Amino acid sequence: MSAWGRGVLAVARKDLVQEFRTFQRLATMGAFTVLVGVLFSFSFDPAAIRAQDVAGGLIWMTLVFAGVMGVGRTFALEAEDAAFQGVLLSPVPRDAIYLGKVIANVVIVSITVLLIVLAFGLFFQLDYGAHPIALALTLFSGVVGFVALATLFGAVSAGTRLGESLLPVLLFPLVVPMVVYGAGATHRLLLGRPLVEVEGNIRILGAFAIGAVAVGAVLFRHVVED
């Protein structure tokens, strides 16, 4: 493996080891997910509205808000003791640092998404059996695109006085297309619609994810140097 690849894996491993030692972000995101599921279960009348009809949007909104809570802490934890400056002084290239953090955040947010799917399935008695692979691909593509942008703008917000509170303002307008296509595809899959109806949405989500990672890798150097 090249030095660049080893740098990516080293950064990802560092972030994951730090998280799995404390479970700070996972615990917060998990608690938020469960509370959202409980609140949503009491927010509508199942006799008037089928949970299967609204679950797609609820899953994606929970993903976004829980993801902001978790990814927003990526740089804040290191900024508390100036540890991130040590990372920047290492011989690891800036784009490798970014991709390593994206990989770690994708793992953390994916675990949260799995909890969202399980919690919503429990609270709303959802049927995921129609197209589980397509649903998993849809959610994973959304996670990658969301995390790529959130990691980049997390670095931007960490360098300001507003800190994490600025992240949603910068991030939410850019993830609107992802939520629209992702929620639409998830809604159709939960209703058991044919896969041909969601193929376009999944391709767009994949392109969004690839583009977000590429743009983030290019811009991250300028963000951290400023």
Explain this structure:
Required for the export of heme to the periplasm for the biogenesis of c-type cytochromes. The chain crosses the membrane at residues 23-42, 54-76, 96-123, 135-158, 170-190, 202-224. Belongs to the CcmB/CycW/HelB family. It holds the Pfam family CcmB. This is Heme exporter protein B. With 226 residues, this protein is mainly alpha-helical. It has one domain. It contains 9 helices and no strands. It has helices at 3-22, 24-41, 51-71, 74-79, 83-89, 94-124, 132-158, 167-190, 199-225. Helix 3 (51-71) packs antiparallel against helix 8 and helix 6 packs across helix 7 (132-158). The longest helix is centred in the middle third of the chain and has 31 residues, at 94-124. It is globular. The mean pLDDT is 87.
